[in-house]
Write a structure and sequence with these properties.
This protein is an alpha+beta fold. It has 7 helices and 11 strands. It has a single domain, classed as Phosphatase 2c, domain 1 (4-Layer Sandwich). It has a 6-stranded antiparallel β-sheet with strand order 1-2-11-10-7-8.
Length: 252
């Protein structure tokens, strides 16, 4: 899928992988106006059909809140700061999934990760919950902008294990946070300045469990823009396709 607005171009693709019976990932974008667009990747978890419901509901409820509350500009003509509105949109999505979780037994324990970047003019806002990631692709390296909400990442952050040890840790996929699991949730919204001209990659962990960051960078750098997503998904499937794979590539 390809989309072009007045400034932003993006490509996105999702794939079931080779080990799953259905795709519980979900992706969406929404243009709030000509200079403001939200890009979202989600990865559902839990329940018989709960994962695919959780990711879809969370994505759509996030956009629902932003459509009503996002402020494009202030009275003086300058772009408004939407940090709080973006935070509240994800908290609203969390509450909606949580309430479904409690109402329907077939959705018990369902939840979803979220990785989102909202571009507003030359300003970007990023937020993530879980282990879906947001990267920036620079000329000479790949930089992870999001932080994994996982047990193993907490061990690395606290200096208990190394990053190399984390790669083979038996609990490396255990999440500490996901939308819809608890009634309330905490996370950070990070604001980026001067995003125009930068390149971003959002993905579910179906990519990152099968492809190292260095390889992601190499493939993206050596691919035409329209082939970045498909080439990364191809590599993840070549390496086992262990989970659903969703990739969104954004050129601001």
């Amino acid at each position: 899928m390809k989309e072009k607005g007045c400034i932003i171009i993006f490509w996105a693709e999702t794939n079931i992988g080779k080990r799953r019976e259905k795709n519980e990932d979900y992706m969406l974008t929404y243009s709030l106006d000509d200079v403001c667009t939200a890009y979202i990747v989600l990865d559902g978890i839990g329940g018989a059909t709960g994962g695919e419901i959780a990711s879809k509901v969370a994505g759509e409820k996030t956009i629902e809140y932003l459509k009503e509350h996002f402020v494009i500009s202030k009275d003086d003509g300058y772009l408004a700061d939407n940090t709080e509105n973006i935070s509240m949109s994800v908290k609203y999505a969390n509450r909606c999934v949580y309430e479904l979780n409690k109402k329907n037994k077939s959705y018990k324990d369902m939840g979803t990760t979220i990785a989102m970047i909202v571009v507003q003019g030359n300003t970007g806002y990023i937020v993530n919950v879980g282990d879906s990631r947001i990267y920036e692709l620079k000329e000479d390296k790949i930089v992870q902008l999001s932080e994994d909400d996982t047990y193993v990442n907490a061990l690395v952050r606290d200096g208990i294990i190394t990053e190399e040890e984390a790669k083979t840790h038996p609990d490396k996929h255990v999440l500490l946070k996901a939308l819809g699991v608890t009634k309330s949730i905490t996370f950070n919204v990070r604001k980026l300045d001067n995003v125009i001209g930068r390149k971003f990659l959002l993905c579910s962990d179906g990519l990152t469990i099968g492809v190292e960051d260095s390889e992601i960078f190499k493939i993206a750098k050596n691919s035409n823009s329209e082939e970045v997503c498909s080439n990364l998904i191809k590599k993840a499937n070549e390496n086992g396709g262990l989970d659903n794979i969703t990739v969104m590539y954004v050129e601001a």
